[in-house]
Write a structure and sequence with these properties.
- Helices cover about 35% and strands about 20% of the residues.
- The chain has about 600 residues and is α+β, with helices and mostly antiparallel strands.
- Among the domains are: about 140 residues, 2-Layer Sandwich (Methyltransferase, Cobalt-precorrin-4 Transmethylase, Domain 2); about 90 residues, Arc Repressor Mutant, subunit A (Orthogonal Bundle), CATH 1.10.10.10; about 70 residues, Orthogonal Bundle (Arc Repressor Mutant, subunit A), CATH 1.10.10.
Length: about 600
């Protein structure tokens, strides 16, 4: 980390007023803080982070410095090497900031095969932490177990059960084997039924030499897996209020369904339960409106399939079911077991990023059709999340919210159209011309109370990072949003003007500001850079950039010296028209 990057990090901490998920500042004038071990563990087990010793959060991250930076850096290195298991190898540097010496420690995320990192003195179950928001949270024993199992490829789905071939759904088996012989003839055409089931690991041999179904085979093709695993099912509950039970009316739920059977059956019946409880909503489309279902079918299917096939199947998790909870304002789907492998919440849906906890189960379900449909349960191509997001985008809805807790994974669908009639009318009343569709989505997200940064904007719109940065900068330039932080810490919020209540008789203060006169007045007879104009006008750099572009197109401002408009070194001056030149010449006589 350079001195410039350190200054940027501290500036962002001061703007936000607290630590962030990947930066922890601690006051440490004479000794290492006791809680530092927790933070080292948490950063290593999450996505890495930066520890800054010598800043006081209680005084808005004032630089108090450390008394003996060389000794503290040495003690910190020893802590990372000798007290943490496995040892941590951070980059530790001493930096001068605002006249004080700070110790900066950049902690990398450790490889999945080595997690969890823990403090040796406390042991693995008491000394393992993860980063949640701006704090460190101790992992539960189950979460530690999940991390340990993720060091390699879990084989819980290949665990043998007490069930036999007689416990299979023979209609599903017949369709499954027929598909294998048709689409994968090299491996399966010459095998008899027993040979096929053994090769795909539907059947295995136990210690007594007897054929038994694997857990994957039972869940994918079994007649009634819940006979031995009663909680490997779906619970569906439709609640009457956004907080759940309606105590005033004495209504606990509007519908309550236990969905059982093999995974293909549960996908079909789980979808049916949600459909039965859905209503229609009105959305604006072009000049009219149409009625659509609350949630797109594709999104529902993908979220149910993902919950069933990616859930944790270890013995410790087999007592927990997949849960679908419907509220008036949202739909929540939750499954035991967090994300597996290199997949993170930030990379969900990205092309080429995929990992399977239950690889044998997924390979079987690739060839098992959903009853009554031509499609199989899943493709096993890492495309499910992308299909889910695409269907919600097409429906004009808010995108799902993902929450990974190691021991569980939750997907929440907000129940409303992102671009509803009220939002569209509000955007029209802003009287801003030239907004792109994606910029309108950004404004709608902010109006809806969602967090907006470059990543969430790209996810919602499908734009690449460069275009997303330009469009967000344009919204700042239009003074519709304000930016806090910079670079990867940049966050956006509605400006005061955009946040004002709108009405048919639009107040003058809500109208777009015209900054022409301010820019021209600041220039006067001078030749100035964008930064100098921004300093004189007290406007943001993005706003100055926008109005300089407008003034250049109108021919009242030009770049002196022929520099590129994109250059920070470009300097601007007013264009003096011929009439002004003649008047000045006359005044000189």
């Amino acid at each position: 980390m350079t001195d410039e990057e350190l200054a940027e990090v501290v500036d962002n901490l001061r703007v936000l007023g607290s630590d962030v998920s990947d930066v922890e500042a601690k006051r440490a004038e004479k000794a290492l803080p006791k809680a530092l071990r927790d933070t080292l563990s948490a950063f290593s087990n999450t996505s890495g982070g930066v520890v800054i010793l010598g800043l006081d959060e209680s005084e808005n991250f004032a630089a108090n410095g450390v008394a003996d930076p060389a000794k503290m850096a040495s003690d910190l290195a020893a802590m990372c090497s000798d007290e943490m298991e496995p040892p941590i190898r951070p980059l530790i540097a001493i930096r001068t900031f605002e006249g004080r010496q700070l110790v900066v420690c950049e902690v990398p995320e450790i490889a999945r095969e080595q997690k969890p990192v823990f403090y040796r003195g406390a042991g693995i179950n008491q000394g393992s932490f993860i980063r949640v928001g701006d704090g460190d949270r101790k992992l539960s024993s189950y979460e530690v177990q999940v991390m340990l199992s993720s060091r390699g490829q879990p084989r819980d789905d290949e665990r043998l059960t007490s069930s036999t071939v007689d416990d299979l759904d023979h209609d599903l088996v017949e369709q499954f084997v027929a598909r294998l012989r048709r689409f994968r003839p090299h491996a399966f055409r010459e095998l008899d039924l027993d040979g096929v089931l053994r090769r795909v690991k539907v059947v295995g041999v136990n210690e007594d030499g007897l054929d038994r179904l694997t857990l994957a085979g039972l869940l994918a093709l079994g007649g009634y897996p819940q006979e031995d695993y009663p909680q490997l099912m779906i619970s569906f509950v439709n609640y009457p209020t956004s907080s759940g039970v309606d105590d005033a009316a004495g209504v606990r739920f509007l519908d309550n369904v236990m969905v059982e059977g093999s995974i293909p059956i549960m996908v079909r019946d789980g979808l049916a339960a949600v459909r039965r409880n859905m209503s229609r909503r009105a959305v604006v489309e072009d000049a009219g409106r149409k009625d659509v279902w609350q949630y797109p079918e594709t999104a529902l299917r993908e979220v149910i399939v993902n919950a069933l096939v990616h859930r944790d199947l270890s013995p410790a998790a087999c007592g927990t079911q997949v849960q679908i909870e419907m509220y008036p304002d949202r739909l929540v789907v939750r499954n035991p077991g967090g994300l597996f492998g290199p997949v993170t919440v930030d990379t969900l849906g990205e092309e080429g990023v995929s990992s399977s906890r239950n690889s044998t189960l997924l390979r079987i379900l690739e060839e098992v059709p959903i009853p009554g449909e031509a499609r199989t349960v899943c493709e096993n191509r890492g495309s499910g999340i992308r299909a889910m997001i695409a269907s919600l985008r097409t429906a004009g809805m808010s995108l799902p919210q993902f929450s990974d807790k190691i021991s569980s994974f939750r997907v929440t669908f907000p129940n409303h159209a992102l671009m509803g009639e009220e939002i569209i009318n509000w955007i029209r009343q802003l009287e801003e011309t030239g907004l792109t569709d994606s910029q309108c989505i950004a404004l709608a997200m902010l109006r809806d109370g969602q967090v907006l940064d470059n990543k969430s904007y790209r996810t919602a719109t499908g734009l690449d990072s460069r275009i997303a940065t330009l469009e967000l900068g344009d919204l700042v330039g239009r003074e519709l949003v304000v930016q806090t932080g910079s670079r990867r810490w940049a966050r956006y919020a509605l400006s005061a003007r955009a946040s004002e209540p709108q009405s048919k008789s639009l107040d003058r203060r809500n109208r777009p500001a015209d900054r022409r006169d301010e820019i021209l007045s600041a220039l006067g007879e001078s030749v100035l850079s964008r930064a100098e104009i921004a300093a004189r006008t007290k406007l943001t750099n993005q706003t100055v950039r926008r109005w300089l572009t407008i003034l250049r197109k109108e021919g009242t401002v030009e770049i002196a010296g022929g520099a590129s408009p994109q250059s920070k070194n470009a300097r601007y001056r007013r264009v003096r028209n011929r009439g002004s030149e003649q008047a000045d010449l006359f005044d000189n006589f």
